[in-house]
From TrEMBL:
GO terms, molecular function: calcium-dependent phospholipid binding
Matches recorded under Gene3D superfamilies: C2 domain
Pfam families: C2
Lineage: Eukaryota, Metazoa, Chordata, Craniata, Vertebrata
Domain annotation C2: ranges: 1-113
SMART domains: C2
Species of origin: Mus musculus
Underlying gene: Cpne1
Protein name, entry field: Copine I
């Protein structure tokens, strides 16, 4: 029997994250881990979203989906307050476990975030959407903005662009500029 594999792109968003920072909201980042022979191995991470309790991460997570193989995944949400890649000195905001098959079969899966088994992370949830990558063509665009309104009280504003794509009747964030 042939072993079927396809590349899947996961989009991640969270709602109602607990705040670990004093005086501001957390700066969340999502880490994806996979169970490899009984040990959790980090596969990839999203970007950090500053001061946000309901982030929609623009960086997607790509993973190979092996049909008829149970692939256990763990999503960890961390409050990043430094520039080091190690997570040991960052606050854990919650996590969720599921299989890749659960996400792919439902296309969009929402799970409660847990601080540890049996202990919810407040009302926090994580939503993961899956999309099979079939077409890898590249689109190049050049965008320019002029005479933007200054939205900050003091100094200049920090404008950015967000690009969305439509999937399953819902617009999903595909890219956010710095």
């Amino acid at each position: 029997m042939a072993h079927c594999v396809t590349l899947v792109q996961l989009s991640v968003s969270c709602e109602h994250l607990i705040d670990k920072d004093i005086g501001s909201k957390s700066d969340p980042l999502c880490v994806l881990l996979q169970d490899v022979g009984g040990a959790w191995a980090e596969l990839c991470r999203t970007e950090r979203v500053r001061n946000c309790s309901s982030p929609e991460f623009s960086k997607t997570l790509q993973i190979e989906y092996h049909f008829e193989t149970v692939q256990k995944l763990r999503f960890g949400i961390y409050d990043i307050d430094n520039k080091t890649p190690e997570l040991g000195d960052d606050d854990f905001l919650g996590g969720a476990e599921c299989s890749l098959g659960q996400i792919v079969s439902s296309q969009t899966l929402t799970l409660p975030l847990m601080l540890k088994p049996g202990k919810p992370a407040g009302r926090g949830t994580i939503t993961v959407s899956a999309q099979e990558l079939k077409d890898s063509r590249v689109v190049t665009m050049e965008v320019e903005a002029r005479n933007l309104d200054k939205k900050d009280f003091l100094g200049k504003s920090d404008p950015f662009l967000e690009f969305f794509r439509q999937g399953d009747g819902k617009w999903q964030l595909a890219y956010r500029t710095e």
